[in-house]
Every structure is written in structure tokens, then in C-alpha cells.
Amino acid sequence: METHGPLGILWVGLGLCCFYIGLIWINTLLGVVLTPLFLVPLTWLQDRLSGKSSVRG
């Protein structure tokens, strides 16, 4: 069995911590960017189906 000691454990822990921080960050970013891409056309569709005309002025 091969061991890398306490420094290896700290190194792997730091790497996993950075990985999970990056994973949370990219999931948050995707949620912020992708949500309007689905919500805006959905509101357009709802307005069109309900018969409301767009108000511009």
C-alpha cells in the first residue's frame, strides 16, 4: 500500500474544495443565464395565447 502522508491529503482536499466551488459557481451561472432564455419566450407565448396585444409607446 502506498501512502502520501498528510501533505498529500491536504493537497487532495484543496483540489476537491476548488472543484466543488467551481461546480457550484458554474451551476449558479447557468441558472442565471439560462432562466431568462426560457422565461422570456414563455411570457411571449402566454401573451399571444391570451390574446393581449403588445403595448408600445
Describe this structure in words.
This protein has a domain at 21-45. Helix content is 81%, strand content 0%. The protein contains 1 helix and no strands. It has one helix spanning 5-50. The protein is mainly alpha-helical and 57 residues long.
Describe the secondary-structure layout.
Blueprint: H1 5-50
| Radius of gyration using CA atoms only | 24 Å
Supply the helix-strand structural class.
Answer: mainly alpha
Please report the total strand number as a whole number: 0
Shape: rod-shaped
Q: End-to-end distance, in Å?
A: 75 Å
Q: What does the average pLDDT come to?
A: 87
SSE run: H
Largest beta sheet, briefly? none
Helical run tally: 1
Keywords, separated by commas or semicolons:
57 residues; mainly alpha; 1 helix; rod-shaped
Quick rundown:
81% of the residues lie in helices and 0% in strands. It has one helix at 5-50.
